[in-house]
């Protein structure tokens, strides 16, 4: 693995991975702040508002024209959740055209643009956001929220995760609340913008063919430090959701009816084990055996042996510590599928794990981590998880720890699993 | 091995045809840990009426059988194929398109072992009555999953509206009903027709040594014998130039309606021209409907379109079309706006500045897409199965003129070749 250079240590940090092998240079600026119900909706609009215009490029079209002329650089902004944290991100991927004299200048132009989008959005003379930009992004954000409903698999999965985390901040909806989006929210957006800039931790990731990384760091640092205080900021770390959270809530099974051909069954278990936990590598292996791979228990038992589903998997979220089992099944066979899925968890808890399952899962995971070196976006995500949890694992460490996981470790992880929430999206009986 | 240098991409492509007819293409990417292999047959969902040159009768097989076959290839009498890959730390998958079926793995170790697993399982069919029946339940769920997916439904209904006879109008997976007709005998029949090495292509990209890869593949193939290849005669019904239906409307349990406009284009049989058409059309559509276009600015501001709005273009030897659209509250209005934008460009021409920007953009996007070994291998395969080397596209792209772009738009658009698919809320 090429060496990753880290700069900065408190509020502002840059992480650089230099490699000659890519045609693309990737940038990602991530601003992290604790989720707060009061600001969830307004903060979630900001990354999209940034792409509506800046001081020098006052409209979305002007920005896109520049970006396209930089050899089709891809500019993207998004908002996501990591446990109880909200992450607002702006990223870019720029082609490195072999032998092109313009490469260096184009990259400088892009770096300048990224800083400007973040620090100098298009505003009126009094500093407020332009009303045309605000009304447009509000409408687009409403559509973004409405669109969530129409991808049934993702919708059901996110509903399960949100309901399982209630009433903690992690349960707040990623894109905010539809009924809080108002055309006159420009002042609130500005407050949320200042709050984000003044309080967020800022991580800048760059990878690809990098020229003079130190100069790049100094440049970013000067631009940000000249406008932001580097001493007052929130420094949250992600903590997994603990089982004690469940003491005040009953076991919940929620059902939503839609006119669908296929039911989406999601079962959320709480492990209490997060990225920084000593059992984290074992949790990865446990989830691999349970449902991550085609040799996993869920794939074999639900799909291959019983033909109940096309997909039957599990996903482990190292930020919340949740393990989610999910499958798309015929509405009339949900009961059978649920039973088989629950049995697989029980099997691992009882230690019914073969040497072959462990060996295959470890090989599969190690293969994935080795491939990260070829995938800058995935590398960024793994490193960022470490930044968020305060547990900085190198890829080599993690691979070694995965190799050392024992059947006892896996059983221990499974014993931590407590059923937390079911969310079922299905059709009414008369519609089947 | 034949070595072709693509200077613009700083890439070397190695190709070789083995004595049994199998074509191998290797593209080393220095510094990559990953190796990605794609083993494909020129057999897709469209190949449902065919014979071999040694036969006189055309055979008609059930819709969805190429995809069904892809699922069943993973079944072996002793050990499950996924387990064999898992043993060597590879992740494996497969997919079927209208024109090809591909099996793949990616790994970072044990490349020879994984290549052997890939070649051996694809070259060893094992179908029984029981395992065929079992798969019907799994594939039925796959079909139901897609039936609930509004983007997929909008696309697939548009294909049915644009094409009257071409088998691309049939869903790749078939229907829950059509797959019930599939038996182990029909599967073997299709397998033996289309899975001959002569009809297949193996593409291996990433951290590889091409000569060593060829040696491994050759060693594997030397151990197997295949009957003489009888060339395949595919029967495609003659497709009218005009669309079958101008508008189709379907209702699903969705919050946001969808509208997709299809422009039926002319297929191209010659490889070089196919690439030219593919690229030039992309430049035209990006200029008219990309995020830097007047259209995008006007209608995202008015609220007619949202961030789901996009376009795509596909051209093959058998079919060609553009698709433009996304989510909208007013499908009819969006349809009108798209058509008016095209007609305005036809009368006013395409701005030189817009053309130049879109050309630069497409050039850059090729570079970035080839950082993904999966994209590199898939591109090489889909063009390679049609005997085209895609990488010359960069040089081809540089030679385009704005006038050629305008001419392309004239060829692409005709009122009789436009269909619209709308998915609305129940």
TrEMBL record, chain A:
UniProt domain Peptidase M16 C-terminal: residue ranges: 247-364
Pfam families according to UniProt: Peptidase_M16_C (PF05193)
Name of the molecule in the record: Zn-dependent peptidase
Highest taxon in the source lineage: Bacteria
Annotated NCBIfam families: YfmF_fam
Organism this protein belongs to: Alicyclobacillus tolerans
InterPro entries: Metalloenz_LuxS/M16, Peptidase_M16_C
SUPFAM superfamilies: LuxS/MPP-like metallohydrolase
TrEMBL record, chain B:
Bilayer-crossing regions: none
Residue ranges occupied by any Peptidase M16 N-terminal domain in the UniProt entry: 63-175
Protein name: Zn-dependent peptidase
Listed Pfam families: Peptidase_M16, Peptidase_M16_C
Matches recorded under InterPro entries: Metalloenz_LuxS/M16, MPP/UQCRC_Complex, Pept_M16_N, Peptidase_M16_C
Domain Peptidase M16 C-terminal: 182-362
Species assigned in the record: Alicyclobacillus tolerans
């Amino acid at each position: 693995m090429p060496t990753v250079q880290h700069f900065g240590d408190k509020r502002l940090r840059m992480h650089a991975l230099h490699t000659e092998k890519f045609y693309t240079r990737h940038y990602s600026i991530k601003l992290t702040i604790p989720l707060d119900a009061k600001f969830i909706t307004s903060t979630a609009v900001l990354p999209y508002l940034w792409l509506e215009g800046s001081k020098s490029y006052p409209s979305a079209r002007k920005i896109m024209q520049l970006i396209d002329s930089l050899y089709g650089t891809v500019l993207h902004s998004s908002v996501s959740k990591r446990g109880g944290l909200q992450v607002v991100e702006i990223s870019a991927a720029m082609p490195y055209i072999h032998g092109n004299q313009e490469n260096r200048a184009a990259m400088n132009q892009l770096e300048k643009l990224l800083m400007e989008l973040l620090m100098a959005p298009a505003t009126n003379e009094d500093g407020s956001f332009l009303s045309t930009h605000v009304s447009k992004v509000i409408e687009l954000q409403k559509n973004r929220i409405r669109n969530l409903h129409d991808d049934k698999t993702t919708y059901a999965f996110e509903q399960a995760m949100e309901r399982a985390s209630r009433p903690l901040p992690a349960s707040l909806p990623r894109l905010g609340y539809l009924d809080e989006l108002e055309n006159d929210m420009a002042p609130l957006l500005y407050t949320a913008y200042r709050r984000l800039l003044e309080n967020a931790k800022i991580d800048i990731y760059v990878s690809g063919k990098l020229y003079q990384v130190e100069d790049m760091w100094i440049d970013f640092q000067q631009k940000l430090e000249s406008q932001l205080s580097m001493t007052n900021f929130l420094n949250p770390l992600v903590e997994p959701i603990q089982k004690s959270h469940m003491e005040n809530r009953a076991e919940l099974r929620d059902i939503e009816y839609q006119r669908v051909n296929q039911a989406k069954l999601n079962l959320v278990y709480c492990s209490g084990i997060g990225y920084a936990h000593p059992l984290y590598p074992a949790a990865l292996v446990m989830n691999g055996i349970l449902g991550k791979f085609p040799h996993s228990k869920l794939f074999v038992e639900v799909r291959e042996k019983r033909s109940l589903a096309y997909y039957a998997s599990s996903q482990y979220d190292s930020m919340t510590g949740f393990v989610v089992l999910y499958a798309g099944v015929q509405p009339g066979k949900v009961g059978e599928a649920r039973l088989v899925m629950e049995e697989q968890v029980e099997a691992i808890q009882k230690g019914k794990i073969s040497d072959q399952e462990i060996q295959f899962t470890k090989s599969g995971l190690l293969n994935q981590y080795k491939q990260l070196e070829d995938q800058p976006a995935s590398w960024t995500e793994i490193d960022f998880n470490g930044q968020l949890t305060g547990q900085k694992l190198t890829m080599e460490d993690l691979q070694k720890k995965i190799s050392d996981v024992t059947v006892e470790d896996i059983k221990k992880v499974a014993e931590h699993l407590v059923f937390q929430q079911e969310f079922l999206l299905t059709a009414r009986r008369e519609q089947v | 091995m034949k070595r072709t240098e693509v200077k613009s991409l700083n890439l070397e492509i190695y190709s070789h045809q083995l004595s049994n007819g199998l074509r191998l293409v290797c593209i080393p990417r220095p510094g990559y840990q990953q190796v990605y292999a794609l083993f494909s047959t020129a057999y897709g969902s469209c190949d449902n009426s065919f014979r071999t040159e040694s036969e006189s009768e055309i055979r008609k097989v059930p819709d969805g059988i190429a995809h069904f076959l892809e699922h069943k290839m993973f079944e072996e009498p002793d050990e499950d194929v996924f387990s064999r890959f898992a043993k060597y730390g590879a992740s494996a998958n497969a997919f079927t398109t209208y024109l090809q079926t591909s099996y793949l793995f990616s790994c970072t170790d044990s490349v020879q072992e994984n290549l052997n697993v890939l070649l051996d399982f694809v070259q060893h069919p094992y179908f029984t009555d029981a395992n065929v029946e079992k798969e019907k339940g799994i594939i039925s769920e796959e079909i139901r999953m897609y039936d609930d997916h509004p983007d997929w439904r909008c696309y697939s209904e548009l294909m049915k509206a644009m094409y009257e006879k071409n088998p691309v109008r049939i869903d790749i997976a078939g229907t829950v009903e059509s797959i019930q007709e599939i038996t182990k005998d029909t599967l073997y029949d299709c397998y033996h027709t289309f899975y001959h090495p002569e009809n297949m292509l193996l593409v291996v990209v990433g951290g590889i040594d091409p000569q060593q890869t060829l040696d491994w593949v050759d060693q594997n193939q030397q151990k197997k014998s295949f009957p003489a290849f009888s060339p395949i005669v595919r029967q495609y019904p003659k497709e009218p130039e005009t669309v079958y239906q101008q508008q189709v409307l379907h209702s699903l349990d969705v919050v946001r309606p969808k509208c997709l406009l299809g422009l039926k284009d002319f297929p191209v049989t010659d490889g070089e021209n196919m690439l030219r058409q593919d690229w030039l059309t992309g430049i035209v559509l990006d200029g008219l409907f990309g995020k830097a276009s007047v259209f995008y600015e006007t209608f995202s501001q008015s609220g007619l379109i949202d961030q789901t709005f996009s376009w795509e273009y596909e051209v093959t030897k058998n079919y060609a079309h553009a698709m433009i659209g996304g989510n909208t509250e007013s499908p009819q209005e969006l349809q009108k706006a798209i058509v008016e934008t095209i007609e305005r460009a036809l009368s006013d021409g395409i701005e030189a500045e817009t053309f130049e920007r879109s050309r630069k953009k497409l050039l850059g996007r090729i570079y970035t897409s080839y950082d993904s070994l999966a994209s590199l291998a898939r591109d090489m395969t889909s063009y390679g199965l049609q005997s085209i080397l895609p990488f010359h596209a960069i040089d081809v792209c540089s030679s385009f003129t704005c006038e050629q772009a305008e001419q392309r738009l004239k060829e692409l658009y005709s009122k009789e070749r436009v269909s619209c698919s709308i998915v609305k809320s129940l």
